[in-house]
Amino acid sequence: MRAAVPSHDVFEATPNPYLLLAADSPTFTIIGVNEAYLRATMTQREAIMGRSLFEVFPDDPATPEAFGERNLRASLDRAIQTGLPDRMAVQHYNIRGSDGVFVERHWRPLSVPVTGPGGEVLSLIHYVEDVTSDVAGARETQTALTASDARYRAIVESSTDYAMVAMDLSGTITTWNSGAEHVLGWRAEEMVGRPTETFFTEEDRAAAIPAQEMRTALEQGRGIDERWHLRKDGSRFWASGELMPLKDEAGAVIGFLKILRDRTSQREVEQALVEQTDILRSVTDHVSEAVFRLDPDGTILLANPAAGRLFGWPAGELVGRNLHETLHHHREDGTAFPAEDCIFVRALREGTPIFAEETVFFRQDGTPVPVTCTNAPLLREREVVGAVVTVTDLTQRKRAAEQQDILNHELSHRLKNTLAIVQSIATQTLRGVTERHLVEAFERRVLALSRAHDVLVQRSWASARMRGVMESVLVMQADLDRFALDGPDLDISPQAALSLSLLLHEMATNALKYGSLSTAAGKVRISWRTEIDPSPTLVLDWAEIDGPPVVPPSNRGGFGSKLIRMGLLGTRVAALDYAPVGLRAEFRAPLADVLVQVR
């Protein structure tokens, strides 16, 4: 074959990379180059013209296994010797950039000899096609395939929690991974060649379930089921299974792959949850309180039968309605109640609990219902997903409380009348007594009992607040700002309230006569606390401040002193210290006798 040297215009205009070489092996001097070649090789015309091809394009020392220079030189020599074009396989031949750093390149070279009249080779037209992207893509694909195959094998063999069983179209097992051995108990050499139905239960084999699963997989592309399966030792386990067809390259089904996972423990948990749900539903269906399950927007997702009965709604019609808009839309005075002002709406949005909050809900017919509400937020990963609201009807309780209040006021009226009669009788009886201070002391003690009675009436004679008892008695002797009270406001029993009122009355009376309250600047600090060791005890401290110098009594005193020495609840645990700077006293009583007993 004889090739003519292309014209200069054609040589330059062609988009393909061409190089014109002298046939001066082994130098192969560059005597012509087009723009496409210069772009492909990142070179400049003036930098390569007249130089040896292999001086311009030496081998990359970082890839000694490439042999690009050696292979190309051999190809050029063959073209000169045979006078025929020489096409090479794809060559890994990196080229050096302008910064001296080699860049990866892969080429498909073609060398065509240009011959003279006598058939002698005058020069060589060297054409190259840059196939770097193709080679890189193929390499990446191969790497991905290799990695994918490796991952597949690794997944199949290392997935000990998943039994992966391959079978042919007849259901005969062909592959049995380590997960199958772990889950089912048989080794691969025991199961390959045996029918799949081996690990199905007797009842499923009788019902032809294995064949049914294969038909479903063929018709629907996969078959998913949950059922009991057998282990080698004969025990049963609940498995989640999936069967899918295996196809060859032509798309023909050649078998099936079954993947199993032991879900026995999860099933037990799910069944326990179902049972708990049934129990919970049974409880909510039979309690007297209205119970609502709300979504984050306040929409009712569940309402128990008591909710329907309490608010006059037919069964099921509360579900899907907004709780506030349906039952809490107005205030007790009849004015509209916007949702943004509602404490329950805010609690639902913010995920905060509410305990026994009193309010008024409305029945379907508009009748108000006094209730207490408890809001229990439901959170999932710190996000509010709803709430459970329990509503208790207070109608009967309020009626009973009103009736009790009437009875208490009647009892209070009669008891006050009795105390007044006692005081009147005492006054008449003691009219002739010349020591009037004794009579006045008696009357004040009766009045102290009356004040304690007033405090007890407020709590239906069931209990009294300790601070309230103190203030009601002390105010009889001096302004309350002369007393510093410090201690927990306990609920105390009626007996403790009466005893405390008499004790404080006597202490304040003495302070007013002889102690700190007898001066304008004097004060009394009363503090109380509870102690655990050696047994739960209430400790009451009395300390007089800024009064006159204290002089201890010369005798045991009269009835008032006796009341003080008796202490709280008659325990007779009373320590009195007549220090010159002011009287100090400490009283102790068993905490169980002081506090209200919860029955």
TrEMBL record:
InterPro entries: HATPase_C_sf, PAC, PAS, PAS-assoc_C, PAS-like_dom_sf, PAS_4, PAS_fold, Sig_transdc_His_kinase_HWE. PROSITE patterns: PAC, PAS. GO terms for molecular function: ATP binding; photoreceptor activity; protein histidine kinase activity. Residues 148-221, 276-328 form the PAS domain. Pfam families: HWE_HK, PAS, PAS_4. This is Blue-light-activated histidine kinase. GO terms for biological process: regulation of DNA-templated transcription. SUPFAM superfamilies: PYP-like sensor domain (PAS domain). CDD domains: PAS.
